[in-house]
Amino acid sequence: GIQVEQSPPDLILQEGANSTLRCNFSDSVNNLQWFHQNPWGQLINLFYIPSGTKQNGRLSATTVATERYSLLYISSSQTTDSGVYFCAGRMDSNYQLIWGAGTKLIIKP
Amino acid sequence: DADVTQTPRNRITKTGKRIMLECSQTKGHDRMYWYRQDPGLGLRLIYYSFDVKDINKGEISDGYSVSRQAQAKFSLSLESAIPNQTALYFCATSDRSSGANVLTFGAGSRLTVL
Question: For residues B60 and B46, is the Cβ–Cβ distance under 8 A?
């Protein structure tokens, strides 16, 4: 089945730094989504980004579907950005989203 | 009130007990899902339902059952809980008419099986 790799697995940054999180897929996917899980466990959808680039405040995401990867950019990090970031996608033939293992981000004040 | 509400939020039980986790939503979405999250891993799909009469097994359905009592309610049962079912369980919804299948999650139900 499809494999989803996220990198880096862990990232520790100072407040104000910028970061790039990557998501690689072993096969073509659609319905690519990015999620943030805060330290209390709540999961929030950040982007639905099957292709192209979207921006929402300090966050932006880019998916290059032909090369099977997606990037999440976080600029001017804040402590509230801490948590785990997941990407998930699905194949055309299957309704199930396949999830990466996540990138754990810690922003230090 | 939350759009997707899960109860209970925390539960400790013993091996062999029957457990039900409940999910209700006020978003009017037709699709509902149950996921499981283990430490250090992404989410894995247990069951999903595209409408009241449509129930489908996900990646890890063994040991679980579900019931879609109404469009707004989707419950997950563990018929005879075992310790390796200790995990964080999430209910999620999505709207077929949007075409994007963007998921909205509940706050999660933490289950510990002793």
Answer: yes
Q: Which of B103, B109, B110 to mutate to test the interface with A (most CBs of A within 10 A)?
A: B103
B29 contacts in A (CB within 8 Å)? none
The tokens 């290059």 sit on which residue?
A64
Q: b/e map of A42-53 (b: 16 or more CB within 10 Å)? A: ebebbbbbeeee
Per the CB < 8 Å rule, is B100 touching A41? no
Query: pLDDT tens for residues B48-74?
Result: 999 999 999 998 999 999 999 999 999
Contacts of B72 (CB under 8 A, 6+ apart): B24, B25, B26
Q: Which string of DSSP letters, residue by residue, matches B11-57?
A: EEE-TT--EEEEEEESS--SEEEEEEE-TTS-EEEEEEEEETTEEEE
C-alpha–C-alpha distance, residues B32 and B5, integer Å: 12
Give residue for tokens 């209970």: B8
Query: Chain A: nearest CA to B82, how far in angstroms?
Result: 23
Q: Closest-CA residue in chain A for B103? A: A45
Q: Are strands B54-57 and B43-51 parallel, antiparallel or unpaired?
A: antiparallel
Higher pLDDT, B21 or A65: B21
Range B7-34 average pLDDT = 96
CB proximity under 8 Å: B 37-66 to A: 40-45, 48, 56, 58-59
- A72 CB-near residues (< 8 Å, 6+ apart): A20, A21, A22, A23, A34, A46, A47, A59, A60, A61, A85, A87
